[in-house]
Specification:
- By secondary structure, the chain is an alpha/beta fold.
- It has helices at about 10-25, 65, 105-120, 150-160, 180-195, 220-225, 245, 255-260, 265-300, 305-345, 350-395, 395-400, and strands at about 30-40, 45-50, 55-60, 80-90, 95-105, 140-145, 170, 200-205, 230-235, 250, 405-410, 425-430, 435-440.
- Helix 7 (about 245) links the parallel strand 9 and strand 10.
- The radius of gyration is 55 Å and the shape is flat.
Length: about 450
Amino acid sequence: MNQKQRFIYNISQLSTEAKELLEGTFPLIWVEGEISNFSCPSSGHWYFTLKDNRSQLRSAMFRMRNMHIPFQPKNGDQVLIRARVSLYTARGDFQLIAEHMEEAGDGALRRAYEALKARLQSEGLFEARHKHEIPPHPQRIGIITSPTGAAIRDILHVLKRRAPSIPVTLYPAAVQGEQAAEHIIDALQCAIDDKRCDTLIIGRGGGSIEDLWAFNSEPLARLIYSAPIPIISAVGHEIDYTICDFVADQRAPTPSAAAEMASPDHTAWQHRLQQLKQRLARSALNHISPKKQQLAWLQQRIRHPQQKIIEQSQQLDEIEQQLIKQIKQIINQKQQRAELLAAQVQQNTPSHQLTHYDLHFQQLSRRLHRSCENILHDRKQTLTQYAHHLNTVSPLATLSRGYSIVTHEKSGAVIRTSEQVNCGDKINIRLNQGQLEAIIEQRHDS
């Protein structure tokens, strides 16, 4: 082939066109994988490899993008990124440019769990002062769980063994799946509205964090916090903790343990009752014996009722005399107080007040009259002075001395010089008494 007919790429051209082809072909895509070879230099950019069990791909996330990520990724993290497919032309490396990153799988759930736990704890939902005590002798126990799970069988088995006389009410609810949290909330609200149970057990058997996720619901936690019934949380195994465990009034490691917390031991209480009966019998004997001795002693000291009546009669007479004396003192004090109040009332009677106000009114009236006369006299003098000054500068005064005011008929302007009029113009002449109309026949400017 002729050398002139060949189109030869250099490396930079080929890399640039390959990059443009990749970036123009692929839109923003979602990619999931495990982080390895993670590094963060002083520039703040993130560089890492995203891999699965068969392939790996170089990736980068620049500082302006990663500064909004709420967690610090590390090697081994399973993440989900939204990225552009690109090519690093300097080395010819096929790579991903990440725009967004979030934790995938269990990591995202664990982070959401920790965030909700911290927020509710800061609001005080976990504080012991808000928790109810579990009744030692419940009248009825309510259970919120799946009617077909192992948890209900374990709870009923323990309750039957420990306290077979306590009635139990089951509020069935799905404990796993997308709608499980809503089912549990509905069952709990039903138990609250029912108002028959004084102890509630909420729980299920063990499982993964996804299996137990319904018990990490924020609405469920807030309903448990506000519930008036003491609640025992028994979710999963002893090592499993959910938000429900922290906000409940008591946390049990297993459903069986929750049943033991909620119920008294029937056999132990029978033994305890027998011990109390024996203690009561001994206490009664110990109490009766001294009372018998005291009764015998009192029987020996008893006096005739007539003597007691005479003593009380004397006491009554003394009390009567003291009472009469106190009543007289009180009457005298009240009379003195009444006389004092009468004198005060006399001084403040309406007629006395009216006389005082009438004198004050007359004084004010005279002062007002004198003040008005003085003001009127001053105003008259001032008016006379102003009238004299006004007459001095008035044009009418000037006219009275034989002068006149000449105005142009059309414009009304005052004529001061002969140049302001022409022959034939009409003028008005204002005299001291009356006015004249004239026509200019001749004009002399000098």
